[in-house]
Design goal:
By secondary structure, this protein is mostly beta strands. It contains no helices and 22 strands. The strands form four sheets. The chain has a seven-stranded mixed β-sheet with strand order 1-20-17-22-15-13-14, with no helix packed on it. A hairpin with a 4-residue loop joins strand 7 and strand 8. The chain is globular and about 50 Å long.
């Protein structure tokens, strides 16, 4: 089963210094029918103005993943970590028993655009931790590149404390990748740029456009094809329990 959530169905807002869209209930936005997909609780698509950001605030018992799409994001936390991340960089914070952090755009002139995802951890009460990892953007075309996972993979990725993997991929028009999912698990798709055709069970086809998402259950074999003629299709796939 493939449930499509068009980009315009998200809760979008403009605070001047912060523009964004929420794919799930978050903050002042609440929809009792849209609070989670498996352990995935938050997908925020944010753009932060220069020299602005989020002041110190606490978290606990949550895996928080920040994927920078453009610009730079500065993180500082109560564990003593300070890091600036740009495109190709991933920040992972396991809030565990509790951590306080800030996030802001250190640039004087450029916005930062990022995806921030929250996942429930495999168990509560973990020791809080933080890391930054980098992936090579030149490896994205024509493959599903893992950037965060609970599993060991062929290169360094952010370590998640949940049985799942986050992939990024870029596809030229007409090029495809396949994904085989274990029975009983879920897939979440999010199109960052371009258009993506998804072929699932019984050859049923679904077309996703920029910032559309899809939540898939009982789809064990997927064919994913880029259909953006002018530019590459850039998308995220998450393998979830």
């Amino acid at each position: 089963m493939i449930n499509v959530y068009p980009a315009e169905s998200r809760h979008s807002f403009d605070l001047g210094w912060l523009k964004g869209s929420h794919s799930f209930s978050f903050g002042n936005y609440f929809d009792k029918e849209n609070t989670a997909f498996g352990p995935l609780r938050v997908l925020n698509d944010d753009t932060i103005s220069p020299k602005r950001g989020f002041g110190a605030h606490p978290h606990s018992d949550m895996e928080i993943l920040s994927i920078v799409l453009d610009g730079a994001l500065r993180h500082e936390d109560s564990l003593g970590n300070v890091m600036v991340t740009t495109f190709g960089g991933v920040q992972r914070m396991s809030a565990g028993t509790g951590v306080v952090h800030t996030e802001h755009n250190p640039s004087d002139t450029e916005d930062v655009t990022l995806l921030q995802l929250w996942f429930e951890p495999e168990r509560r009460g973990l020791a809080p931790s933080y890391e930054t990892t980098k992936y090579d953007p030149s490896l994205l075309p024509g493959r599903l590149l893992p950037i965060a996972s609970s599993n060991s993979v062929e290169h360094s990725v952010a370590k998640l404390h949940q049985d799942m993997t986050v992939y990024l991929s870029k596809l030229q028009a007409g090029s495809t990748v396949s994904f085989q999912q274990q029975p009983g698990r879920r897939v979440f798709l999010f199109v960052i740029e371009g258009r993506l055709e998804v072929t699932g069970t019984n050859d049923a086809r679904t077309l996703l456009s920029r910032r559309d998402s899809a939540r898939l259950v009982n789809e064990t074999v997927l064919k994913l094809e880029g259909v953006q003629e002018a530019d590459e299709t850039f998308f995220m796939l998450i393998d979830l329990p």
